[in-house]
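Notebook p. 47: complex prediction with pyridoxal-5'-phosphate.
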Amino acid sequence: MSKYFSGRFSSLTPYVPGEQPRDMQYIKLNTNESPYPPAPAVAEAAAREAERLQLYSDPECLELRNLMAERYQVKPENVVFGNGSDEILDLAFQAFADEAHPLAFADITYGFYPVFAQKNRIPYTEIPLKNDFTIDPEDYRGFPGTIVLANPNAPTGINLPLSVLEPLIAENPERVVIVDEAYVDFGGESAIPMTKKYPNLLAVGTFSKSRSMAGGRLGFAIGNAALIADIETLRYSLNPYNVNRMTAAAGAAILKHDDYYMENCKKIMDTQAWTTQQLQMLGFQVLPSCTNFVFAGSDKLDGETLYRELKQRGILIRHFSLERIKNYNRITIGTPEQMETLIREIQKLLEVKV
Ligand SMILES: *Cc1c(COP(=O)(O)O)cnc(C)c1O
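Predicted complex, structure tokens below:
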């Protein structure tokens, strides 16, 4: 730290992204990326825009915004885009939480929530998941601030049915509920239609996972026009060009070929079911996942050892050292072939151990 660094941030612990080592070719199952490439038309749309990089991007993302509105049956003024949904979450935290309106989120959830809260000097409460790693909305009832829920949750993969979530939104019209739907396309139930009914509901989404765009950085929020306008005020106070030309064009092309991406989600969920079954046959406890990853642990092989041994064998998975989940690993679903290799390597490891 330099002596010039503002005291406001001297104790800030930044987010640690999943590792991206270059020492060898890994099977990458550690950052929940899609194993499938963009549709050819998407890469072409981005390449066409690359020839116009001398011009600023459209701050309103008009074409993309109109296509999104059509896809999700909302109006263009109900949509805002971000440089990944991480940016949207940061803006939403700033817009809807402060000293007087603290944040609440689960003790085990997306690691960026506490970072954004700390960076923006917003007090927060971490509410423990139940023993079975589910969220109990009862635990949030009466909380006097802004609630953030990842649904399905990460890294557990567990989905909270909308019927269970809805009362939490309905009973608290004075505070915003932010639902982070990064994984919803894989088998969750989106809260987007409910944004028409509840002016305090903000649904946040991303093209990173289900739409093979992690490297393109495109996230969004959908909600009541007044909530979206608040986020826009902050976005125009930071960077109106937050979505670059190539990404905006790619996003529009994706929505024109959305069937391809939704089919990929189905393929991934078939592979997920197979992987879950194989891991269970090897004695792993696997949480019920509605996402493109599984969260699994075994009494025969501790979490950290599994992570290290697989890395030596060229397979990356994500281990978290948090006490409650240190015996688990989050494993992204890759292609069927990649998952067969994973299962084969775990089998070999278990044979050596017993
Ligand atoms: C991946 C992820 C995000 C953010 O993804 P972006 O790439 O920034 O769009 C947000 N929330 C959760 C729970 C995630 O897993």
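Notes: Residues 32, 84-86, 110, 150, 154, 180, 182, 206, 208, 214, 219 surround pyridoxal-5'-phosphate (CB under 6 Å). Residues 15 and 112 are 6 Å apart (CA to CA).
Next step: compare against the earlier run before touching the bench.
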